[in-house]
């Protein structure tokens, strides 16, 4: 199916390229807008004194004279702000001179347009910053609209003449009293490298963001009582009802190491900080943000931008890499998990979000500013527009080093020659232009992503008409010509503002909400047959800017709408039946019906937090001290989880393994709960890492014994701590350790599966090995253990020698010959089957229609009949598609492993494709930690960034290295067609993260097997956002081997942790589900 979608996208792109572009840039000679936000660096103010000097300014949109045409306000940094009247047909008149707009030399950044005094006229608030030593020039301005393009500056009168370096502001009604309150994004001193304020304590209360309550004719500061007295580095904010309780919540995008702020409204005038509990991770250098329902599920999602480049050269030359110590300092000091990628936070409908930017291909858009999410092509799906570019690349690593060295040398030389001159400034010694010349300057294209639905996006910037290279910052969407599609206004640095006309010909429906109170926060739902769309009004979007305050729905080629439901801010409901399409509807509030409280639907699964309270506690071990360039840690793969009736009472009991330093636990059923059974043997073995286990009758005495797999990466190779363990049951649930019954296999293990493969009446074991400790990715040997009267020996075959990095296995009859074979999966491995031929095993890759080898990062495999044809099918869990690493048969993800610098230690080289060329995945800084010779060989980041993997490491060296490849990261169902297995990718929602374990079962009693999956991988290296978007997922079987995702709110199944195992278990004749989470609590669902 995904190949079909990809083919459609390619066809669409080809079709689009032959049509008129979606947007046309209108020349300033027609528009009359020749505004250019021109910046120059001087000794008094420059990028070296102010870090945001090249940050640009915003766009304000509003019908200031109520003539039915949206007008434009353009903010400026060094030049004058401008306001333009819309004359129609993309012609505008500059009304600044007589408007009352004050240009006093202040640095305007943000524009916010709203009706502050509820008089029906739109007012303007300008946020001013910079000028650390001149508070008067960074005092914000409030322009009250007097009508006819006349404004009165009234910030002092209203009590909002704030001089705290406000980057932007947002109006919203936080207490639902019908008046717009004001939230200010204040900054600490914006220090460049040579600012006299450099080193200032940025957390002082005077730098806090502020909330002002509107009292009708003035504002009062309620920051502290609202619980919002927190400082950061805010670039942008959006308001939305993220939990749909009828009250406005806040999201703030913070730059640098401050976490993004997510506040839920407590409905009592205060807010609750929920970043860590609601967001698994955030962007690091968070820039612009927009809020919209991007997947048409009626929940507001978030698009937050960062600064990571898409192309290999800019990625590696402009970012020196993330320092692990700095990363963990941020986490441990309350900054949460932050990564240098855009985040597209999908709302899970339960106060949590999952970032799917990697899945949608929207994670890296270079130094980005404004994100605007709207249906630009009027097809019913909201697209994404992103502005991009910085006047000079101030994070170019080579340039930064040159400038530092030159400044240090110039100052030292001057001091030596003039030891008594204390009254000197930096610019008396250093030539500003010389330093600026070291900084590269490259205009970049903005980005446009078309939404194809089902979380499928494609970058069609070059075909959209939006591909002009620029330094673009604030941007707004607005229908300037009232033709029913969304045009764009973009504020550029050192270039005239862009005015784009939208050429869409699809149908639409637009709604202007009219009331004598603010309409921000109104929720509008559109119903059209089986289709649904959702829109919530809000004040500001993107960065520094606001867009039109009109509800906009694209309809594609559909010519009718069934109904529109409007929920006004006071929760009153208004319904419109069969509204006319291709029209702007001006809807006055007539609603009198209150919103009905929705009845809670019964869910398939309900979490039980009382029956078993157990927490797996992971020990700390830094795998990267052993191998710097590991893609992820290998020491956090537990816990083991096994079930079985160990005391003969007819009820399932539990074994839960521990991490190194935590003893394992055995629980027996006692009534409707579990009772922990103490045994000194678990204490004696608590130094070991338990990663898998199985209860089975090893000695045919009628009770269940226990085999535990020892794993992890903490201990040196060939350590006895990697020896697996066999515990013999006395029949009453008391276990005795019997080391002598097992062969001495020293690989770090991963999985054990019991089956009588030789049909001699006792159970044998397949034991998979995860790795050779400290030697990733060398293939490890797995083992088939033959049971000989309760003692086990290695089966005499070389088929399992150096098999690979095995993660899971299952016994099943692959070739339908009446005996059981083994399917084995692993990291860097194909899906491998060992066919059992009278006790001899023949290794082969599973036969699929994938068209290439099935190599992947497989983490799980499960067997079951998925289409009711009585043939065994497979579900195979992979890394997923929501990760930095990408793979295809034409552009595989690869690893090379060898001693590239002849220092006696083998090196890991991960390689990826970027625009058709294979490069080292990691940057110069961390690569040279692993291979120090690279520093002497290349010296400069720019040089390393320009070289492909063969140029860096040598073609011959790579040819002689161990080379492993991945062709796909998709999790899939493999449908047994007898002659081959049909590879059917699981739905996109199942690709959010790795799938670590699966249950195949008919959960909803429709006679069709469903899937219950768990996953995530929290232990990625810190330059790769951890794989944490998975929530667990119920996939309803359709009957043909395909599946339909069921949302968390509908299914009730929510397992967002680093979930490693899932099992079903019978608790007093009731089926329950257990989820084993790494470094977290065990979850039970009934």
Report on this model:
The chain has 18 helices and 71 strands. The protein is mainly β. A five-stranded antiparallel sheet has the order 33-32-35-36-38, with no helix packed on it. Strands 52, 53, 54, 55 and 56 form a five-stranded antiparallel sheet that branches. Strands 1-30-29-28 form a four-stranded antiparallel sheet, with no helix packed on it.
Put the structure in a nutshell.
The protein has 1086 residues and is mostly beta strands.
Shape: globular
Helix content: 10-25%
The overall average pLDDT, rounded, is 95
Tally of helical runs: 18
* Helix/strand/pairing category: mainly beta
Distance separating the two termini? 33 Å
Radius of gyration: 31 Å
Q: Beta-strand level of the residues, as a percent range?
A: 25-35%
Key structural traits:
five-stranded antiparallel β-sheet, 1086 residues
Architecture blueprint of SSEs:
Elements: H1 2-17, E1 23-25, H2 28-31, E2 59-62, E3 71-74, E4 82-88, E5 91-94, E6 107-114, E7 123-129, E8 141-147, E9 150-153, H3 155-158, E10 166-172, E11 181-186, E12 210-214, E13 219-221, E14 234-240, E15 249-254, E16 261-265, E17 271-273, H4 275-278, E18 282-283, E19 289-292, E20 301-304, H5 312-318, H6 324-335, E21 338-339, E22 343-347, E23 353-355, H7 357-360, E24 368-374, E25 383-388, H8 397-417, H9 426-429, H10 432-438, E26 447-451, E27 457-459, H11 461-464, E28 472-478, E29 487-492, E30 498-502, E31 507-514, E32 523-528, E33 531-536, E34 551-556, E35 563-567, E36 572-577, E37 584-588, E38 593-594, E39 607-608, E40 641-644, E41 653-656, E42 665-670, E43 673-677, H12 680-684, E44 690-696, E45 705-710, E46 725-729, E47 735-737, E48 748-755, E49 764-771, E50 783-788, E51 791-794, E52 805-812, E53 821-829, E54 832-837, E55 840-845, E56 856-857, E57 860-864, E58 873-877, E59 893-898, E60 907-914, E61 917-920, H13 924-930, H14 933-938, H15 941-946, H16 949-953, H17 955-959, E62 962-966, E63 972-976, ...
Parallel strand pairs: 18-21, 31-37
Antiparallel strand pairs: 1-30, 2-3, 3-4, 4-5, 6-7, 7-8, 8-9, 10-11, 11-12, 12-13, 14-15, 15-16, 16-17, 19-20, 20-22, 22-23, 24-25, 25-26, 26-27, 28-29, 29-30, 31-34, 32-33, 32-35, 35-36, 36-38, 39-71, 40-41, 41-42, 42-43, 44-45, 45-46, 46-47, 48-49, 49-50, 50-51, 52-53, 53-54, 53-56, 54-55, ...
